[in-house]
Design a protein that fits this description.
mainly alpha, 3 helices, cell division, membrane, Cell division protein FtsW (Lipid II flippase), transmembrane helix, cell cycle
């Protein structure tokens, strides 16, 4: 089975930057008071950071069983964070349409 940890680390770190950009732009435009967008983006930031951490641990682990465990945790955290980003994009889209 091909290892996914390097791909998870790369994607998580990129999307962590995207989430931080969302939070920064919300604070600048002061939109965050009316929506839950900053909460979703903040949760995504934390989850992407944890996903980066666990995928890094999986890459550095010498124990095969521990490596698979860390990779699975990173994978699930990445998926949940991706869901938070999708919710944030939906909220932004609805806000723009209104």
């Amino acid at each position: 089975m091909e290892k996914k940890s390097p791909h998870i680390l790369n994607a998580s770190s990129n999307l962590l930057g995207f989430s931080l950009l969302i939070i920064t732009s919300l604070k600048i435009t002061k939109i965050s008071n009316n929506t839950h967008l900053d909460e979703f983006a903040g949760a995504a930031c934390l989850l992407f950071a944890c996903s980066c951490f666990f995928s890094f641990l999986a890459i550095r682990s010498r124990n095969e069983k521990r490596e698979n465990k860390f990779e699975t945790i990173a994978d699930y955290l990445f998926l949940i964070a991706l869901f938070c980003i999708v919710l944030a994009v939906v909220i932004v889209t609805v806000k723009i349409i209104d």
